[in-house]
Each structure stands twice: as C-alpha cells, then as structure tokens.
C-alpha cells in the first residue's frame, strides 16, 4: 500500500439552486484501499461520485483523481477508472456482449482483437462468460448488475468506483462479487463502493466514510471504529451467582445472559472460574457499523417528518 | 465513437421503421394513382404529382414533395431528439462520458449519425419511388422501346436520363442538408432535456411555427431566415437551365442553422451537469 | 473555492458568447446590405437612357405586390401578380427576342417572344401555345413585372413628369443609380415611382411603386443579373414528347368580347378622353376603352352581368362603397394604388379599373349610359 491518495477532494461543494447536495467535502482515499462510502439516501453520495467522475461540475472546491485535476484531465484519468454510477445501464435492444463491445469501442485505444478479448475477459470475471444473444431487455436484475460491473472492469482499472454493486444479486451472487472485489483489490486496484447496506460494507471494506446531509461526517479505518466498548457479554447457567460476585458491574440481565462492564475479558474469566461459576459464553462487546452510522446520521431524505411547532 | 454511433443507429428498429414508412407513403400514393388514374389537376396538389401519370420517372420528385412537408420532419425530429436525451434517459450517457468519450466528440458523432440517417432516408425514398414510379406509370412517352427516355423539365426542355440522375442526386443532397439543419436543432434540444419526446416535440414546434409564419406578410422580414422557407427550392433544379439562386441561398441558410444549432448544443452540453 | 466557481461561470458564458456572436454574424451577413458606391447621376439623362435601349441580360427577379385587390372572377392569375410574390426569370436578347419565365412552386409558365410571334409554355397543362397577332390591350403577365420592362413602361407613360435623383443603392451585387418619378396628375393614385438602374448599361434593376402616403406596394427587383446575350437554345421553346402544341390568335380574346355585344365605349368618361388603341386589325376589342393619359388612366371593360355582379358582391364585402345608379347596382373600391368600380344590370355589366382616385371611377360609373343589348 502506497501513501499516495487516489482520490483527493478539497472543499467540494455542489449547490442546486438553494439546495446544497454536497457541502465542503474533503475526502481522501489512499491507493489500495477498500473504501466504503456510507450514508442514508439523499446524503449526497451519488452527487459526490458524479463529481469525482466529472459528470457533475462542482459549484466550488476541487477534485483530484489519480493525481490529476478533474474534470480538466478527464481524458487521461478516466480510462484508468471503472465506474458503476447509481444503477447499471445498457442499450436494451442489444445483447450484453454487443453492449460491451460498443461501449468499449466508444473509448479510445486498442486493436480490434484486443478489444474483443477484453470484452470476453470482463464477461468471464463477472460470471457472464456464456451469455447468449438475448437482448439486455430480457436480462434479470442480477444479470444487468453483473453486466454493469463487467463494463466497469473492461479496461483493467486502477480505481473502481461502484455504487451499490450488489444490488439485485442473490446471496450467492453477493458472495461471488465480494470475492471478486477482494481479488481485484489484492491485485492492486483501489475499490470505492458506496452503499446503504452496512453489512456489505462491513464485510468488504477496510475503511469507511460516512456522509450525512451533504457533509462527510466521518472517515475512519473500520478496525478503529470497532474497538471494544468496555463491556462483556456473558452467558452462564447461574446468573444469580454472577450478580452476587460482580454486583455493581452488571449492566443488564436477561435470563441467562448478562452484560458486564469490564475492560479485560481474560481477567473476568479467571475471576469467575476461580469463584466456581460456570461460563457458557464470554465475549467482549463491539459496536456494529450500524450503531456507528445511525449515531452519526439523521434520517434519509426519503422520510418527511412533521416539524413540532 | 462515430463508428459506434452509426452501428447503434443501424441496430435501432425505430430507425428502420422510419425509413420503411417514408418509402411506403409514396408507394401507396403510386398504387392509388395507378389504379384510379385520378391525378390532381395541373397546378394543384403536391408538386409533380399531376405529371407523374404520364411519366413514372418523375415520381421520385413527386415522392419527395409528398414526404417533405410533414413525414420527413417527423422522422428527423424523432431521431435527432433521441440523440442525447435518449442516451440520458436510458442511463447510457453517463457510462459513455466516463468511458471516457469527450463531450464534443459525442456531439459530433451524434450529428454525423443524424446526417447519415437523413441522407439514407432521402436517398431511399428517391430510389424506391423511382422503381415504384416506373413500374406503375412507365418511362413516359419519349421512351424508346424498352429503354428510359428523358423527362419533361418544368421549362419544357427534355432532361436526359443521365442528367436526371445528376440532378436528382443534387436534390437528395440539398434535402438531406435541409433535414440535417432540423436534425442539428433537434440535437440542441436533445441536450436541453432528458426526455427524447420533449426534444422531438420541440423540433416539430419549430417546423410548425416556421410553416405558419411563412405565409404571413407581417413576418416577411423574418421569412428569409425561417428554416422551412427554402425547403422547396430544390424544385428549381428541375428547370432548364437550372436556377441556382434559391438553392444556393437555401444551402447557405441551412448550413448556418447547422452551425448555430450545433454550436448551441456544444455550449450547453460542454458544462452541463449529467444527472440522469 | 470562489476561483473555481468563477472559472466555471466564465467558461459557460464564453461558449454561449461565441455561439451568439457566430449567429449574429451569420444573420448580419444575410441582412446588412453592402454599402453602395457613390455615383453621379443626372436623372433626366438616366430616364432617356433607360427608355432608349433594351440591353441584353439574363437574370432572376422577384416582384412583390401588396395591393389588396378583391378577387375578380377569371382574373385571379392577373390579380395574383399584384397581391403576392412572383418569381421571374428573364432571358432577354432584345425587344423582340426574349423569354420570361414565371416560376411557380410546382411548375412554370414561360413566355417566349421570337421574331414577332409569342409562345407560351405551361408545365401544368403540358402544352405549348403559339399566339399569333397582338391585342391592343391584354391582361398583365409576369413579364410586365420584370424591372426593366416595368420601369420602361412606367417612364413611357409619363414622359413629361418630373424626375429627381435618388441615392445609389446596392442591387444584384452592383451599385445602382436611382431616379424618382413623381406623377404630376393629381388624379393618379401613384405617389412615386423609384427606379434604380445599372450605371453602365442603364438596365433597370429595381422598381418601387408607392402611393401618395405609405410604403411601396409594388416592388420588383433583379436579385441576380448577368449582362450576357442569352444563348439561342435558351430562347427557343421546346416541345417535349407527349406535350400538346396549339395555335391561338390574339383575336380569340376579342371574339369572347364580341359575344357580349357591348356598345362602343363613349368618347369621354369622367372628363377623360378615350385613347386610340393599336393592335392587329383582327384583334379589335369591342366595348373596351382606355381613358386618361400617363399614370392616371383607367380601363373600361365590358363583362357579363353575372361576372360584374360577383365583382360587385366581392367588392362590397372587401369594404367597397355602393354607388347609386339609375338602374342596376354599382360599387367602387379603393385600394392604395388601384381603384376598381363595377356596375351590373339585368343583362350586362361593366368593370372599370385604373390607377386613379376612386372618385373618378365613381363619376365614370354614373356617366355610363344604361346599357341595352343592341337589336
């Protein structure tokens, strides 16, 4: 992992009339990272991604992608970037293979044979290697999603920007996609995915950014977010004895399960065992990503609550 | 990108449907004329139609006069309106732009494919109507046995078949240019909206506005600059000697429309936020 | 941050500015006239030169009339010349060798004159007509509106009226010198006749006819002109295979008039004398009279009771004034350049039309004797 940032935004802001979609975002994504961009619907994730790709022009602030300013150097930067923006799209009346061939031919570079081979490799990677001549119109949601990812992979990108990449995939497909992204990342590709599926991001990413109401409210390594909370979950056939021993440290009791305030789980175990209390299960409690995100963000833009007067 | 765009156009069913319908209307008229022999009185009805019955070789000119006022503009509006807005509504616009395809290059490719569409459309109408016309009405009274004779020009002098081919090619080129001007306007509208239908209706609104201003004396000062004013100038190519004045003026105005509309499309699209 | 916004805004407006400048340039290229050079003109000498010669030329002209005339049955095509735009192409070798085409949207009507014989090619009718003889008066046709022809005709009608110099003007890519004819007869509706002609050949390039007040209502201009003698092939009418060839005499028109059996026109009407009419002997026009001289003249044309009745009805609808006459109905209609009057009785009718004030025509209508079919 190099120290170089593949994405660097400074004070990035986008206003649509009086609405501020993205508000002063300073985002850094280091090369080689698996970065998850989280946030409720309408928090500005998509606008941010579009600004990174030069589709939307910032009201103010600047974007650097792979070390070059965007959108000025789009022609040199974008061939090295693969992207899935919002949802996959295709010319519905053409087959998936024709779609990829035309899309690939629209960009510069490559001889005819290389281009053909490139399309086959990308299709194989996403599990569409044997796709027939049916038009995309007849594809399932999952197939379209795979096709969209294949399009992003066409040029062997150094940076993958994926918006909701597992949308429409079945659990097995999600697993395959996760393996694919991890493999690509280990080959040196920086992966940035934005999602509102926290478990997805938790399973895949090494670092997360959380957006809320247009602002980037948190950027942190996933490990750092998940430091122990100083509480231990304890399951025992004899809860009354535990309460007697650790009176004052027990925070919660529910049947045989107790939550105990204790920074050192090993010491707690030794103490219980030496007191002759059976321990069925003992685990340090960690915060889930969900708790982190929900604690940081307001409700999404798709919810309209009445305001108290 | 131009090759991709042409490939995409040729794979669209809508485009083929437009071409087929454009060729079908004159063929239908030819069949009706041939069975009833009820040609419109001279000087009435669409240009050349009254003369067609005596010489089928004039039918391409009559066919062009038939499709020019309404049918051809509609197909051009549909195809040109779809140019950018269609990609936007299908979501392909953002994927093309991040491929990356330069925005100017995308517009140029769209204009070229529109030009190819109108050229093929006009040429197809001309060719099919020649075949249909000759089949329905024959080669005309001047034809030697089994061969193509000349046609009567508007000025009375005879146009030989070779000359007729050259003049008809010029007509095809001129009309394609007129339609391309409309296509460029459509391309501009297509960058303003994500709805292909809205862009196409915008083009038709331009055509209808221009056509309804045309006969108004109050709009006489504007007349020269209206796009539809010069649409009928190609008829002068069937006079002897050819009268180039109106055709040249028309070509100048249409080229100006292409330049200005394409420039406007570029000015709007170059910094437009793509949110589709 | 502010810098970025400014840059984006600048690029945005700069592109649009470029496009707007280009569009304005293109419009200006078509609309702004080239400056005309200065030419020294003596108007009287120019009039003499225009009347003195018919220089050969090949050109394309457009004539626009806005006379607001009512529809007169059977005269539609003549009236259209004065109420709409006519496209004309001319091939002129001399006063007796020329061809003038009236270009219609879907056809052509070409008049050829070759050694005293006229031919008319009509594309719509697919027919070439050979016209023998010459009628003393005939309906206006496109050839009459060709600037050189129109200019000469108007100047010839008023040889003594004063002419003044007009500033030069750019016509058909040339600097043309101008003259203004102001009719002196107070009875005419014509206020001014402006003519611009080529300084070298005195070929009239543009003619404007205006009423006493208001803009010109008849404008004819050669948009393109070449001072070459047309090729003989351009002057020879062709008969394409399948087309009909017919021969007609100019006298055929007078035959139709003879059917009306109209009385001879009075020697004087509204204080104006009847002018002698020329023409080949077989082409006399019974009942027709031209009254007045110069630009204040009007024609008396007999018509069927039915036709005159329809003109009376149309003119009344078009804002004409009914005229009290002892028998039958009569109307007069004033348009800025041309006045029309009609009178109909049970068995016959009459039309009066001319470039005179309507009061004159009203007086003429009253003076006409009640017509009776002669035994």
From TrEMBL, chain B:
Record carries keyword Transmembrane helix: yes
Coiled-coil blocks? none
Name the record gives this protein? ABC transporter permease subunit
One Pfam annotation reads ABC2_membrane_2
Q: Which residues cross the membrane?
A: 62-85, 106-132, 138-159, 171-191, 197-216
State the UniProt keywords alphabetically. Answer: Membrane, Transmembrane, Transmembrane helix
């Amino acid at each position: 992992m190099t120290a170089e940032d593949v994405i660097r935004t400074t004070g990035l802001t986008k206003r649509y009339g009086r609405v501020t979609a993205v508000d002063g975002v300073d985002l850094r994504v280091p090369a080689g990272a698996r970065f998850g961009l989280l946030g409720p619907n309408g928090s500005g994730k998509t606008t941010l991604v579009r600004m990174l790709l030069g589709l939307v022009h910032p009201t103010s602030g600047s974007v650097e992608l792979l070390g070059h300013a965007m959108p000025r150097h789009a022609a040199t930067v974008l061939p090295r970037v693969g992207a899935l923006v919002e949802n996959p799209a295709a010319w519905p009346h053409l087959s998936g293979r024709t779609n990829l061939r035309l899309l690939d031919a629209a960009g510069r570079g490559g001889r005819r044979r290389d281009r053909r081979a490139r399309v086959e490799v990308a299709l194989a990677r996403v599990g569409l290697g044997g796709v027939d001549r049916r038009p995309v119109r007849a594809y399932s949601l999952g197939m379209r999603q795979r096709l969209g990812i294949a399009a992003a992979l066409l040029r062997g990108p150094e940076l993958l920007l994926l918006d909701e990449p597992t949308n429409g995939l079945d659990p097995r497909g999600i697993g395959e996609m996760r393996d694919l992204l991890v493999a690509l990342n280990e080959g040196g590709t920086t992966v940035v995915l934005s999602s509102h599926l926290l478990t997805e991001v938790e399973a895949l990413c090494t670092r997360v950014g959380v957006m809320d109401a247009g602002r980037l409210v948190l950027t942190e390594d996933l490990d750092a977010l998940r430091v122990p909370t100083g509480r231990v979950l304890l399951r025992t056939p004899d809860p009354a004895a535990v309460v007697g021993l650790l009176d004052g440290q027990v925070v919660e009791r529910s049947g045989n399960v107790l939550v105990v305030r204790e920074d050192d789980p090993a010491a707690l175990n030794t103490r219980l065992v030496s007191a002759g209390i059976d321990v069925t299960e003992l685990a340090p409690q960690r915060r889930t990503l969900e708790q982190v995100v929900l604690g940081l963000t307001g409700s999404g833009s798709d919810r309209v609550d009445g305001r108290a007067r | 990108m131009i090759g991709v765009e042409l490939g995409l156009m040729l794979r669209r069913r809508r485009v083929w449907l437009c071409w087929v319908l454009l060729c079908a209307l004159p063929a239908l008229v030819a069949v009706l004329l041939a069975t009833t022999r009820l040609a419109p009185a001279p000087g009435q009805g669409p240009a050349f139609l009254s003369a067609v019955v005596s010489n089928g070789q004039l039918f391409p000119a009559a066919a062009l006069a038939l499709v020019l006022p309404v049918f051809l503009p509609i197909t051009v509006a549909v195809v040109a309106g779809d140019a950018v807005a269609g990609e936007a509504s299908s979501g392909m616009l953002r994927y093309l732009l991040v491929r990356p395809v330069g925005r100017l290059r995308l517009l140029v490719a769209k204009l070229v494919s529109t030009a190819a569409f109108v050229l093929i459309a006009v040429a197809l109408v001309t060719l099919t109507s020649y075949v249909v016309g000759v089949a329905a009405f024959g080669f005309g009274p001047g034809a030697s046995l089994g061969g193509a004779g000349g046609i009567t020009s508007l000025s009375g002098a005879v146009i030989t078949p070779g000359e007729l081919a050259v003049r008809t090619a010029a007509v095809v080129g001129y009309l394609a240019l007129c339609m391309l001007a409309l296509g460029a306007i459509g391309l501009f509208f297509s960058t303003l909206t994500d709805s292909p239908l809205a862009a196409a209706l915008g083009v038709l609104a331009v055509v209808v506005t221009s056509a309804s201003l045309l006969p108004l004396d109050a709009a006489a000062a504007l007349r020269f600059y209206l796009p539809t004013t010069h649409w009928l100038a190609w008829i002068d190519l069937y006079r002897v000697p050819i009268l180039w004045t109106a055709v040249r003026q028309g070509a100048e105005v249409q080229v100006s429309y292409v330049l200005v509309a394409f420039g406007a499309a570029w000015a709007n699209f170059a910094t437009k936020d793509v949110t589709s | 941050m502010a810098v970025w916004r400014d840059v984006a805004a600048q690029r945005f407006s700069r592109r649009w500015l470029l496009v707007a400048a280009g569009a304005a340039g293109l419009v200006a290229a078509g609309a702004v006239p080239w400056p005309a050079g200065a030419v020294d003109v003596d108007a009287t000498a120019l009039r003499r030169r225009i009347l003195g010669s018919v220089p050969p030329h090949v050109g394309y002209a457009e004539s626009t009339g806005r006379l607001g005339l009512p529809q007169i049955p059977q005269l539609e095509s003549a009236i259209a010349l004065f109420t709409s735009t006519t496209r004309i192409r001319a091939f002129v070798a001399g006063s007796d060798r020329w061809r003038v085409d009236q270009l219609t949207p879907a056809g052509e009507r070409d008049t050829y004159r070759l050694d005293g014989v006229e031919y008319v090619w009509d594309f719509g009718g697919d027919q070439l007509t050979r016209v023998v003889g010459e009628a003393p008066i005939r309906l206006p046709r496109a050839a009459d509106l060709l600037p050189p022809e129109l200019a000469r005709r108007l100047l010839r009608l008023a040889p003594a009226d004063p002419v003044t110099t007009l500033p030069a003007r750019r016509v058909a890519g040339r600097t043309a010198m101008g003259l203004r004819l102001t009719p002196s007869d107070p009875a005419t509706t014509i206020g001014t006749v402006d003519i611009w002609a080529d300084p070298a050949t005195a070929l009239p390039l543009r003619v404007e006819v205006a009423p006493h007040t208001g803009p010109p209502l008849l404008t004819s201009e050669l948009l393109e002109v070449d001072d070459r003698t047309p090729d003989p092939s351009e002057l020879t009418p062709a008969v394409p295979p399948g087309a009909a060839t017919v021969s007609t005499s100019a006298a055929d028109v007078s035959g139709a008039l003879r059917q009306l059996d109209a009385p001879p026109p009075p020697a004087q009407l509204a204080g104006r004398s009847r002018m002698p009419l020329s023409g080949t002997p077989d082409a006399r026009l019974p009942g027709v009279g031209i009254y007045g001289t110069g630009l204040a003249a009007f024609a008396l044309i007999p018509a069927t009771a039915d036709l005159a009745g329809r003109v009376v009805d149309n003119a009344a609808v078009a804002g004409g004034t009914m005229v009290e006459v002892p028998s039958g109905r009569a109307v007069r209609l004033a348009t800025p350049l041309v006045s029309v009057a009609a009178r109909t009785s049970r068995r016959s009718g009459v039309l009066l039309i001319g470039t005179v004030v309507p009061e004159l025509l009203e007086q003429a209508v009253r003076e006409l004797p009640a017509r009776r079919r002669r035994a």
